[in-house]
Amino acid sequence: MDLKQRQASEVASKVLNKEDLFILDVRNEEAYGDWKIEGESVTSINVPYFDLIDGVEDLLPELPKDKEILVVCAKEGSSVFVGEELIEAGIENVSYLSGGMKAWSEYLEPVKVGDLPGGALYQFVRIGKGCLSYLVESNGEAAVVDATRMIENYTTFAENKGLTIKATMDTHLHADHISGGKALADQVNGTYYLPEEDAGEVTFPFTALKEGNNVTIGEVTIEPIYSPGHTIGSTSLMINDAYLLTGDILFVESIGRPDLAGKAEDWVLDLRTTLYNRYKEMAGELVVLPAHFSKMAELGETGVVSAKLEELYEKNEGLHVEEEAEFRRMVTENLPPQPNAYQEIRETNMGKITPDEETRREMEIGPNRCAVN
Amino acid sequence: MEAQKTLDAKGLACPMPIVKTKKAIKDMESGQVLEIQATDKGAQSDLTAWAKSGGHDLMKSEEADGVFYFWIKKA
Known about the structure:
- Chain A is an alpha/beta fold.
- In chain A, about 25% of the residues lie in helices and about 25% in strands.
- Chain A has eleven helices and 18 strands.
- Chain A has helices at about 10-15, 30-35, 75-90, 100-105, 150-160, 180-190, 265-280, 310-315, 325-330, 340-350, 355-365; strands at about 5, 20-25, 40-45, 70, 95, 110-115, 120-125, 130-140, 140-145, 165-170, 190-195, 205-210, 215, 220-225, 235-240, 245, 285-290, 305-310.
- A seven-stranded mixed sheet of chain A has the order 6-7-8-9-10-11-12. A six-stranded mixed sheet of chain A has the order 13-14-15-16-17-18. A five-stranded parallel sheet of chain A has the order 1-5-4-2-3.
- In chain A, helix 7 links the parallel strand 16 and strand 17 (about 285-290).
- Chain B is of the alpha+beta class and about 80 residues long.
- Chain B contains two helices and four strands.
- A four-stranded mixed sheet of chain B has the order 1-2-4-3, with helices on one face.
- The two termini of chain B are about 20 Å apart.
- The chains are: A alpha/beta (about 375), B alpha+beta (about 80).
- The interface of A and B includes residues 28, 50, 51 and 73 of A.
- Chain A: One of its GO terms (molecular function) is sulfur dioxygenase activity.
- Chain A: Pfam families: Lactamase_B, Rhodanese.
- Chain A: This is Rhodanese domain-containing protein.
- Chain B: Pfam families: TusA (PF01206).
């Protein structure tokens, strides 16, 4: 039998539908430990390809006999190499992930969150990296929030539905991924919105995303709500009084971290005020839609990452820290490592540097780590 | 840095830089140094991990003009 090629989209649908998936990850141990394909139905083992160059005999007993074996590496070269070795050794059902973990990192799965007057709200789940972006559509118009750099995902989606993208918005200056907001707005002749307080060093024109300046998409109103803490400009978006896009301030299972611009100490109080006062005054019925998730378990039945605000005030531990000093410790000490290349990513999002496509892909490798855990 | 042997793996993608490194070091004697030149960005972490798992000593690495240089002393 031949080595089969699997696209990231096929792997994503297996993960989302909780279908059995056996993965032989042949990257080095550090890369695997840092970041891998995960899911309830996923079993994976790690054997670096360089330990398999002389043969795969030692590995054979560890492989299931009755399942497809998906070989995964960073780009795909080594997984093809190992996959072919396995087939030569007589293993029948072997495939490799086309484009490797890079393709996995870039794959977006659009899922519908719910209906809106004249349209609907969609969440684009970047399964491999834990990033969430959004598309609001109403009466043929659309807005994209926290767009990834793979903007063809949104333009293709809009084309298929006959939508005109009028606006793109970033809830804050991102440090974990390269924003596609500006590039997408330029391509569709739309308006790019960014909170002014985050844009001090931004080198290109933008429109301020700020409280009081609502944006209308068809019959839908997008209302900016200033909610600093992850960055000084972090702004949440209330959509038709039903959905609250919280950016990197509040997640389903955790809260944002204030340190990615080197300002942890300065921004702790802002973060606390947003989470413990500002959001608390809002309707508990609001459906919170964050810009990240950290575990596959956060994806609900339909693949959407969301929770009601009142549920988060019950269950999210980041909202239950009574003492301010303890809160300060939680969000400034023992934080997970910072995202890969986060300084360069910030500078790219400000327009200060313009790395080539390949460098951009490399910069985004690895998990996003925008939450405290 | 002095090397007894130089391997040009420029332009090669994974897994070839390591396949060639492994082959080259096989023919060398313990204590000898192999210089590797590669352009694949993944080579850095993979060579580091491979050298460690084989007990070889990655003595030095540097980048110049998009080329990564590694010096590995055979165990």
